[in-house]
Amino acid sequence: MCNLYSIVPNQQAIRQLAMAFKDSTGNLQPMSGAFPDYAAPIVRNTPEGRELALVRWGMPSSKKALLDAARKRADKIRAKVKPVDFDELLRREPDSGTTNIRNTASLHWKRWIGVENRCLVPFTFFSEFNREAGGDIWFARDESCPLTFFAGIWAQRWTSVRKVRTGFETIDLFGLLTTEPNAEVGPPKGDAGDPHQAGGNRNLDDRELVRGDSASAAVAGWVACGGVEGSETRQTFHRLSAAADR
């Protein structure tokens, strides 16, 4: 599960390769690290055409995920012998977002799979955390680290509580689409690390290889075509050498 990536090329290179006709990012600087729940550049479909924009990373989580989280919080409050207004607790349940989307057949994600909610997420290299290997392991298309794109989806003006201290916010959001990993990115055989354990191994839910690449045909195939399955482009990713690790 990718929760850290970097973007080196300038915005002109991104606009040109993604054929973006509008740019609302201002003076976009290279990003050594794009992190969940922070703004990062995407190229999204809009009624006026493709736009390069800064959008928060993390799509709205499912109702079930929020319900489960609210129940856990309610149990902790009840354990302190305090009253709980569960409906209000659920309404204000913080949701930092879902960064990686795997099951596009889910009813929760289907509303955003249409062409109007598709986007491209530029990156140069991305990281998979591996505690046994000493931390972040970096991957790219090859050692030259060319500009590449994750395929993604975005949601417009979604209202939710992202952080307790900020309360309700109405913001645009995006997430990455993932699928099965290749042998280089995937976990070693026999690795049974708990994907939910804090500070543990990388998420072992074997859906990790991105859709979309740096070729114009594949870029257009995702943001312009009407289907989902027909637009998938599987890519082989290369683990960067220690000298190239970012």
From TrEMBL:
Domain of life per record: Bacteria
Q: What is this protein called?
A: Abasic site processing protein
Q: Which SUPFAM superfamilies has this protein been placed in?
A: BB1717-like
- Give the signal sequence positions: none
InterPro entries from the UniProt entry = SRAP, SRAP-like
| Disordered: annotated segments | 182-207
